[in-house]
Structures are given as C-alpha cells and as structure tokens.
C-alpha cells in the first residue's frame, strides 16, 4: 500500500477525521539551482559530476562564496537540503589545493559521525589514483591500535565534542601536525548545542581556538542547524565570532502531509482520552502490515520500551524481527545493526527517542509518527523532516498525548505552523561550567596573566585564575598560571550532564554477568532506583541494587505486568532575591536557590490500563542543586477574596473539636499499625487518613465516619494523598503553567521544574508558585519566564478555558481526584487574578 493510498483511505474514514485537528499539505517545490563554482579544483569537479552533482542548490553556492571570502557561515535550511555537501565542498577543495590542510568535523552523536565517514569515503573512492581525502572517525569506539595512525595521517578528523574535550585537546601535543594545518571546523546539527550541553560545547570551542592559536592556526567555522528562531545568535555565542547566516532553502521537496491527531475522548466530563501510545501502536502496526517503513518517535526511553513491547505483542510472529527500538543506553553494536537494517529496509519499524532525530541517512523513509509533542517546534520540524528526504510523498503525524501542552497544541495547531520557532539559549559563562573548563584549559596550556578566555572580561578571568591558584590547582610563576593539581580535569567534566559519571547496567545470568547498557549517573536515581522496573529492548528488568559511587547497577530479568514511576521530593534550603516587581494581586521575584532533591518513592503502574496498583519507598541519598528561579507570591487580600468567594481551597483541613479523641480511637482500632505496609513505627508518627477526601463532604461528621478513616505511616499517607490529591487552584494553576513553559522557551521538559507550595519559606509560610532551572547555576530559563510572565499566564488561562472537561483533567489543571474534585474553577480564578 503506497502512502498516497493510505492517506486517501484516512480521508474517507469519518472516525479518523473526527480526531484530526489539522491536516496541512505542503505542495512539491522545485529547486533553485546554480552552476558549480569556477574555482573548484578540476579533479573534485569530475568526482562531483560522476556522483551526480552536476549543479548545486543556490544556498550551497552562497555558502561557498562566503567561505571563499573568509567568513564564518551558519546554514539554517530544511532537512535533506544538502547542508552536508555545502560544507564538504570547500573543505575538499582546500585539501586538494593545500595538501597540508586539515579539517575537524564535530557531530553531537557517534551515529552521525559514522554516517559522515561513509559519505566522505564515497568521495574518496571517486578519485583516480591516490586520493587527497583521508577521513577518520576518532571517538570512544575507535580501537586503541588505530589511534596513533589516525593522528599521523588523517586530514579530516570526524569526532564529537566529548572526545574533543577529553581525548584530543588535553593531548594536543600528539596532534601537532593536525592543529598546525587546521583550516575548517564543522559544527553539524548546531541546534542540539543548547542548554547545559551547548554551554559546555561553547567552552570546548574556546579551548579549541586557544590550542589552534598556539600552533598558529585560525580556522573558519561552518555550522549547520535545523530551523530555530535565532541561528545567527546561537552560532555567534558558540564560536564567539561574526557569522553569515544562510537561511533561504534552494532544495526541492515532494508533497508533505503533516497531521495533528487528537485521540478520541472516552470520558468527556473527566477529559480522559484514548491512550496516544495505543493509537500510535495501532497506526504503526497497520503500516507494518502493509509493508510501509515507519519511524516512531517517543519522548522518553521508558515510553520507547513500552511502545516496543505493545507492538511486539500485537505483531504477526513473522514480522516481529522487523520491529526494533533505538535509544541511548543501547550498545554500539545494537545501534549500528539497527541503523543498517533500517537503511536497507530489512527493518520496517523503529521506535526511537531523539537519538534518531538528527540527519543520519536512513534511506527512503516515507512515514514518521510522533507520539507526544517533542517539546519544541524546532524538534517537531526536525523529526517530521526525517520522512520524504528523497522527494517522494511523505507523512508526518503528531499524536497528542493527554498532557496539557499537547492538548493546547491540538486545540491551537496554528502554533506549530504560524509561530516562528523558539530561540536556543546557552550561557557559556555559567560559573559552574566556566570554572570546570578554565581548569581544563589551564591543564592544556598555561594562562598568561593578561590572557583572554573567549569573551570573558580579562579582569574576571584573572579573578577566577586567582581563585584556582588559592585552591592549589594552579601555581603562578613568571606571569603565568600553571596546572599543578594531580587530577586530570577533563576526566571530571561531563558535557551532557551535571554529573560526570555513568552507571553500567549489569544483568545477572546463569552464564555470568552481562552488560545491558549504560545511563548517566544523573538519571540513575530516577530510572534505576532499587526495585524499579527498567525496560530495555522490550524486556523488563528489576533493579536489585544501585551503587552510585562505583557506577554499577545490578538487574534481574523478570516477567512484569507493571512498570514503575519515581516520586521526587524538593526542599528549599536557601534563597536570595535578585530582582522583584510588585504587580496586580501578586509579586514576582527572580533569584538564587539552593534546593535539596531526593527520589523518595515510586508508583507501580499496570501495563495497558495505566492504573496505579501499588507504591514503594526508595532510600537514596539526596543531592543539592544550586540554581536560579522565579517565584510568584500572592497578596493576602487577594487570597482572602478568593477564599470568601469559595475559590481558594488550599487551606489546611479543620476536622472539628473532637478530632484528637477520634484520631486516638482509630489508631487503637488499627492496633497502632500502618494498614498500608504493616509497619509499626513510633505511635506519634502515625497518621489517620480520610479514604474519601475530607473536602468532598458537605457534612464533616460524614467525612469523619470511622469507615472513612484508616491508620497509615507517613510514607503510605503521602502516597495516598497523591492518589486522591485535591486539585486546589494553586495546584491546578501550577500544573497548567508547568506544561506550557516549554512552549515559551526552547528547552527540554527536564530542564525546568514548576512546583506549588502552600506554606513556602519563600514568602513567610504563605502560598507560592516556583519555577526553577533544573541545572546547576541556571541557564536563564526561569529568568526568561520571569520576563514573559504575562504571556505565560495568558496561555494557561486560554488552555483551561478551552478545555471541555467538567472540573479538571490531564489537558488543563491535572486529573481530578478519585472522588471527582478537580479545582478547575479555582485555578482559573487564581490565574485571572494575576493577569
């Protein structure tokens, strides 16, 4: 079945069309062509013609002209627009005309590096006789017995920022030949260098330029990017040099269908919809059965494994070998096998995270399903663009999840097409990140007392160097700072995480230990805490132990009908306000925060039904986070007005004058034992819990009936309260704001957090809504929301107003409590009072 036929079938299906909130069709476009440049070396021109490149796209020629003029260039054109040829052409031409020249290619993933090597080897094989192109991949997978030869012979070095940071710059004396001839540095997929990762990479580029200058080189930079709102700004922040932007796309493309599909409601009052995962599994399975190749994107590693499990259970046994997952944590051999199988069409369906979002050549792909909004317009366009790279008719479909952000986009699909993409934010001068790289730079080369480090003011650089000298890491001699500490600083700095280490996942088998995969230590407490169910290649593993200090996690394969979701507790240890503004009914503050974060428990969630079937405790050490945040405090008179109009329901319960005696009676009835887990803690620590929430009764005496009361320990009580949480206006407003924040700032959902506190230390034990950067030192994300607070609140009001549920659902203020209490009206009253 061709994609065109499948699309026509869907158009005639009324049930399908009822769920389509947007169906956009981009008509085919012709290319804007240009002749090959006259300055091309004749041998290279012949190779290009033999490979089918008799002409260039106009944007490729513009890149050539700017580079010939000595400019740095950023190409921000669509997917499959020939950006690779745009930077390969000037590099190859220079290598032929100046044989001692070299070029450094930086890719954010190893898979992209391997893909580029194959591309360059195709060019190399096109030359008659001795090829002038000597490309080599140099990364963590490169065998040690090949590395010395690569250092001696490679004139195109293909690597990633991590390897440049830890394996090349600290050992630059071994690369003298390469750095002396360095003419070009390529940063492909620049839009991935944002947030923490981008701030680290900007500092690696500072160190690269410093080492290159030591060897007398000043390379030109060529950057490529998917469509983002600020490509020139991001490029100039990364390399700290002026950049020429080329954004007009001259490449042709076929007809492109982009569909936004919102699963049907199954309970309109509660706003409950059919599972987006199940819809995605159904559609992907239909495409598989009809021979169509499909790439299914999911937002998290956990949901990749869930979708993979569902698909394998549903599929014809003869087709199961054609379904694979792809995400970080898989071993290198698994990833290469999947990439090759997908490219050769032996694998029909791949379920992936963002690991396959970038420009790896995966063949003539026609269909892409996005299960859940990826978090930004730029990522949505990038994933959708994986289909139709060969100018055939293509399909990309976004299947909205029940999350508030997804439902907002389903109701306002014009946001995806009519808005300019988000800006990518980095902060190379984040103090935590900057100090780490100053250590690395000092190890590589001594600092002169008046030396600049990027665009950091000289006086500030000197202050930091003096600080490192006082700690004993640097020693000042003859107007220079020398590294004298014992440790190897680059080995202590991770570019992709706030923690420098990884945790290896080990399965215990009768044949001995077997490595399942690896995850970064920062994610370990969240994904592989003790008793967690960890999913890998549709297999379930129970975590038997987690040793964070030694980076080892013991797993045991199990048959499980549930998966686990962790619960995190956040405590504000210290805070200081940097700026604040008094507004209508509230004040907004921005400042520094010292938080204590701890995974304290988990929920057991049954497959398919998603019902909570149990809870568990986790006893892992907390970790501190020094960051920045924006918080809103509310005028007492405003809260009092809400309370008087019955639109403030976040006050503590008042159980009545007889409550102490009734409480003791229930404790005695239950024999001073937790009815949840059976524990017998100190009597004073036991709680008495209302099974049906107290506020859902009009008559307190009915709420306090002994049949509605049960003895619980603090942990079980906390979990029970979560399960029947009363969605007050404070909690509902916080939920809505949390889900909409990534629409206003280009960040991953995990980069920020929003929380509501009824009695917060931020305002003298009064109610507060807090948003903070989930990154040490902060990256300006919460500060951006501080500036955009009016638009943020307006979008939250709009989303809740538009939702058709009765009193709260996952699409607006969060799922209502088990007894139907949601807090939708209260959340609206609170937010409208702030607007």
Main CATH class of the domain at 33-246: Alpha Beta
How widely separated are the two ends? 52 Å
CATH topology of the domain at 33-246: Rossmann fold
- Largest beta sheet, briefly? 7 strands, mixed
Mean pLDDT: 87
Strand order in space, largest sheet: 1-11-18-17-14-16-15
Strand content: 25-35%
What is the CATH superfamily classification of the domain at 33-246?
P-loop containing nucleotide triphosphate hydrolases
Secondary structure category? alpha/beta
CATH architecture of the domain at 33-246: 3-Layer(aba) Sandwich
Shape: globular
Q: How big is the Rg?
A: 29 Å
Helical proportion, percent range: 25-40%
List the total number of helices. 28
Could you give the count of β-strands? Answer: 34
